[in-house]
Amino acid sequence: MPKQVDYAERRERVVDAVHRLADRHGIEGVTLRDVAREAGLSMGAVQRGFRDKDEMLALALARVSARFVERARAAAAEPSPGALERVLLDVALLGEGQRAEAQVWLAFVARAAVTPSLAMTLRDGHPEVASLLTRLVAEVAAGSGASVDAAAEARALLALADGLTVQVLLGQLGRDEARRLLVDRARLLAEATRPEAGKRAGPTG
Amino acid sequence: MPKQVDYAERRERVVDAVHRLADRHGIEGVTLRDVAREAGLSMGAVQRGFRDKDEMLALALARVSARFVERARAAAAEPSPGALERVLLDVALLGEGQRAEAQVWLAFVARAAVTPSLAMTLRDGHPEVASLLTRLVAEVAAGSGASVDAAAEARALLALADGLTVQVLLGQLGRDEARRLLVDRARLLAEATRPEAGKRAGPTG
Question: Do B184 and A152 lie within an 8 Å CB cutoff?
């Protein structure tokens, strides 16, 4: 089936191009034409593969999500407070090489806020990540025998991660500081479930 | 100076129009022409007032910011745990009538992520809000005599508020649930600075 193979490979090339463009200057002003040029494809080839920019963006985000879920599952496979931290840092896309992924996410978010079908794509991925984080939070809390609303904690941590991603992209916060805030929050959670939480003294490590 | 008065009033009308359009269907796809029509002005009038869409958006955001800072100052004028909660809810633009403000903010954020001059506008407003929140957090902590890194707490709360704004706009989280998560976080902060924090039991009120 050489035709199908070409088609899949072409979509891969387009997604690669979207990520490279996002890394260089965001994707707000990027057109199908820009993507075709970057991917080394004709406009016709891109147009046959994608209805419009939103569909292209959805595929680029799908790759970000797939990679993220894969990493999160791997990190969650060995439950520990460290796993919670690693998954959170990964959700927040705060790694050195993740700026392109963060840009793709933010561009998608901005369009999804006004395009219900795109918002649905983002909502579809949300429950798995939320339940994965909920499990990790519950495990951290169980370690100290305290009762915590793990689902609520997980949702708050997810929102914090999203907010940090935005602030780092805007330069309101440095990447290192954002990482520190997120890790501190995960550690406070582990500490706050212990009797000495009030003091917030000493590292958890 | 009738000419200057006209000019200021025209800018007001344009900003009103941007907010109404944002409320109706976001501002991602909104053009100068759309705004002119909504404002009941000619394209020429709009073009004389604004270099481009980004400048228009910057003015619309400036109004969101100005109103917010005004409300935050008023809430902070009577320091209490309640004041911290009120300011946070306001930062997160989670009020019934604040969807348009939230849309303007998100659209601006998405463009600012790729336009350094816009990012600077957002960064300029950040320190005042951060220092106001830092003061409120410090007051809440001082009430229980515990030591907390108030600046770091304030930054984390700001990021949480931003993340919640995004998740509510996307429909990943209900507005009421987002409000509850934010208020809980502010209350946990007040509790966590007390010896019984480990239990997380009982309301703060």
Answer: yes
